Amino acid sequence: MFTIEKLHKGFGPLTVLDGLDLEVKTGQSVVIIGQSGCGKSVLLKHCAVLMRPDSGKIIVDGQSLFELPRRDLMAYRQRVGVLFQFGALFDSMTVAENVGFSLKESLRVKPARIKEVVEEKLALVGLSEIGDKMPAEISGGMKKRVALARAIAAEPDILLYDEPTTGLDPITAMVINELIVDVNKKLGVTSIAVTHDLASAFKIADRIVMLYQGKIVYDGSPDETRVTTDPIVHQFINGLSAGPIAVR
Amino acid sequence: MLGRTVAALRHLFSSLHLILAQMYFTGVKSIWLVMVTSVFTGGVSAWQAGYQFKSYVPMRYLGGAVGKAVLIELAPVLTALVMAGRVGAGIAAELGTMKVTEQIDAMESMAVDPIRYLVMPRFVAGIIMLTVLTILADFIAILGAMGVAVGFMEMPSETFMNGFRQLFLMRDFLAGLIKAAGFGAIIAFMGCYFGFAAEGGAEGVGRSTTHAVVSAAVLILVADYVLATLLFQICSRSRNYIRGSGR
């Protein structure tokens, strides 16, 4: 169980998260939608404890993340896989070294086992042949798939996806979406994804929530979301310029 | 960050592969740069000393005077300033790019401490390799000075080397190396600090790189003054102590 309670975060005079509450059940796949710049990535970074809030809590399986001592925080991070918006692959390492990084440097797995896991995860994302390439030598879609392979290498039980399909063509985006659904099912993970790509949201979500003005203002299943009369969600999913959401 | 870097030294032996990689980047890849800088530093100090000695000081002391200047001051400081440009800028640009492309966040999210993985190896490599490069710079600069003395001042190489040996003190050489180790720590730390502080894309990385080089250069000169004062005081006190006990 992943519980976010009254999370506040501001940058100078700008309030990004304004007492946000959200609950994600174990094994659920929740997608957070919202305008660009509304704080979705900031929220995700709090879930990975890469940022700390001004106030509020995130509780995972009874542990309050921001109060964890360093050793327990490291143990929590070993349970979490993060897919970053632009992949965030280490550009000084090969694809295979990227995928095996946490196994080598955090979990201290033996090299032979790392090789097996890297091959297995790269095969899972359909990229068995590119282990020796550098990130600069592969396409944007491949980078996302390698980043996904890296995120699942340590078999996490929580996966956080930051804009998994941003900047990809529709076909590659759908390949990534199907991979995410597949990975979520195979590993039985709890996942939180943030996106403004609705095709992606409808494909991978069990639940869709909308972030607006620092709060969750809508919560429903993908089917409910398609036909909702909520004016904010209706405007957002139909891409209307007129409505309660101010265009920035 | 400095405290966390020092605390990360407990992982020194498990991070040897990372330290060696950084030693290669910091040291081996800088050898030519240090050699070129040093040979001209030595050469110009021989000319300067020769010009100032004229009519006042016998030229046989040229080797000793140049040797002292090189070992105590010129080799450690000029090597450090050149390395601040090459290594400090390189570290800041590399870590700054990693910061703005979320690679450091990615590392942290995988339960790997970026201070342990990125900063500590650069810090240790900076200290070791600046010391090693300064020894090389000492040697090359003195050769350069001797080359100028022999080639352009018509001084026999034996006269130059006799002068050098006459005034050579091991403590001068060691004081230069202690300073070099301090400068290595400053260069690596400033590169890491400003790299980690980079924000906002290419412009932010450029700004961090500039800050890393400028602050390292200024701190090297400040630290040179502080360390020189401390080391000279320690040397004078130990000399007085030895004289006192002799009596």
Quick one: CATH superfamily of the largest domain in chain A?
P-loop containing nucleotide triphosphate hydrolases
Portion of residues in beta strands of chain A equals 15-25%
- Tally of domains of chain A: 2
- Strand-and-helix sequence of chain B, N→C? HHHHHHHHH
What's the CATH C level of the largest domain in chain A? Alpha Beta
Q: Uncertain segments of chain B of ≥5 residues (pLDDT<50)?
A: none
User: What is the CATH T-level topology of the largest domain in chain A?
Assistant: Rossmann fold
Q: Bin the helical content of chain A.
A: 25-40%
Mean pLDDT of chain A: 89
Task: Name the largest protein-protein interface in this structure.
Answer: A-B, 22 and 15 residues
Which helices and strands, and how do they pair?
The complex is a heterodimer of chains A (248) and B (247).
Chain A: E1 2-11, E2 14-24, E3 29-33, H1 40-47, E4 55-60, E5 63-64, H2 70-78, E6 80-83, H3 95-105, H4 111-124, H5 140-152, E7 158-162, H6 170-187, E8 190-195, H7 198-204, E9 207-212, E10 215-220, H8 222-226, H9 231-238
Helix pairs in contact in A: 3-4, 3-5, 4-5, 5-6, 6-7
Chain B: H1 2-7, H2 16-26, H3 31-53, H4 62-100, H5 103-109, H6 114-152, H7 157-167, H8 170-196, H9 202-246
Structure description:
The complex is a heterodimer of chains A (248) and B (247). Chain A folds into two domains: 1-79 and 160-248, 3-Layer(aba) Sandwich (Rossmann fold), CATH 3.40.50; 86-155, no CATH class. Helices cover 38% and strands 25% of the residues of chain A. Chain A is built from nine helices and ten strands. In chain A, helix 6 (170-187) links the parallel strand 7 (158-162) and strand 8 (190-195). Chain A is globular, with a radius of gyration of 18 Å. Chain A starts with a strand and ends in a 10-residue tail after the last helix. The relative contact order of chain A is 0.17. The model of chain A has no long low-confidence stretch (mean pLDDT 89). The N and C termini of chain B lie far apart (49 Å). Chain B is mainly α and 247 residues long. Chain B has helices at residues 2-7, 16-26, 31-53, 62-100, 103-109, 114-152, 157-167, 170-196, 202-246. The longest helix of chain B is centred in the C-terminal third of the chain and has 45 residues, at 202-246. Chain B has one domain (2-246). The interface between A and B is medium-sized, with 22 and 15 residues.
